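Anyone able to model this chain together with nicotinamide-adenine-dinucleotide?
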Amino acid sequence: MAKWMNAGYNTVYHHTISHHIQRKIQPANTHNRNPEEKKMTFENKVYAITGLAGIGLAVAKHLYARGARLSLADISASALQNAVSILTTESPDPNDNNDRILTTELDITNRAAVDAWITRTTIHFGRLDGAANMAGAIGRKHGVGALLDQDDDEWDMLLRVNMSGTMYCLRAEVRAILATAGTGSIVNAASIQGVRGFALHAAYSATKHGVVGLTRSVAKEVGPAIRVNAVAPGSIQTPLLDKAVEIQGGKLNAMPTVFPRLGTAEEVAESVGFLLSDASSYTTGQVLSVDGGWDP
Ligand SMILES: NC(=O)c1ccc[n+]([C@@H]2O[C@H](COP(=O)([O-])OP(=O)(O)OC[C@H]3O[C@@H](n4cnc5c(N)ncnc54)[C@H](O)[C@@H]3O)[C@@H](O)[C@H]2O)c1
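re: yes, here you go
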């Protein structure tokens, strides 16, 4: 196992956190850049990212290439391994021996494990500046199951992952940012289905509407110190979309978009990067659609 991998980490170090944090807080070093560059750089800043298969991986690539230190978490060990391999291959950093990446195998529905992950992140890096909460799930009948056939276990699973899991992450991240960097920015993954209704998607759509409500409300509690926004992707080419296509018999439901194509994870990552950066310093509580102009 690579030295930065630590699968199954679940120990809480509450008694040592403040000591380590006080010792390790360092200001981000951006003084040599011009003002425009400064807004978009993430140099020396620390970001927590969940969900590393599709959009989360693209966000990690975006931030890593711009100098960020990353704490990556996913329920899938192979998604984490793949992410580390891609990041270090695409943006090799001769100076840091890969110590800009920390990985944790994590189920975001486990509150204690989420808290332990964020604690581990601040102990390891000394600070937290922001987060991209991209982990999410679809059900077995995504786009083909009516409410009247809704399976209760599936409904509970979607609420646990997409809503409770996102809330656990957001809560732990807000605490850690306030205790370390003091200010920051967090982006949650909503969906086109969090801002519109879609037949045969009630459960997933309800959870994504929940993410929108969580984002808008928490932004008002924790601002201006911490900005909280969401992205609402349309149909984006990722493993999740492949799964949806398979469930829907090999073809996607029609997309009434301006662009007659799927979006890419990188296109969503550009918007997440904007919301995490100082370029969006006056924007909070917003849901940014990245959907190709759905239903214009
Ligand atoms: N791809 C799209 O078309 C699309 C559209 C709208 C919204 N979204 C949302 O964007 C986010 C990212 O989507 P994606 O397409 O990259 O998905 P993906 O399935 O490609 O990647 C999601 C990642 O989350 C991880 N994950 C799932 N459950 C988890 C859990 N309980 N704990 C920790 N990790 C978990 C998976 O292992 C996977 O690596 C999701 O929240 C999704 O709902 C995606």
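The beta strands are 46-50, 69-74, 101-105, 130-133, 184-189, 226-233, 236-237, 263-264, 287-290.
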